[in-house]
Amino acid sequence: MPKLTIADLQKIKEKYKADFTLREGGYTVKIIVHMGTCGIAAGARNIMTAVMEEIAKVNRNDIIVTTSGCAGLCAKEPLATVELANQPPVRYSDLTDEKIREIFREHVLGGKPVEKYALVTGCETTY
To answer: Is the dihedral of CA 57, 61, 62, 65 positive or negative?
Structure first.
């Protein structure tokens, strides 16, 4: 049996990551609002409220919203990460209600990341 290399494992991970992340509950979009202490202090609750309002407007049940703790980027809070099936996740920073609503329209509904608010595209990899 041939040995797997790190490159082989990376290819396998990328191939199945979107499917496993989103398909478990039948969702095509996952929005993560980072709600650590620093995020909450910077306004993450307002970001969460705006996201929930936007979802209610479009009446879609294929979008899931979750929270996470601190992302380790306190100076860039509030943060949110948008994951669309078969696309790399995009982490947005320094968010406001207006910015997250624009991100929702353009990225979540339209499929096009909003580069001017994006901090990073892709995921962190640990070996």
So the answer is: positive
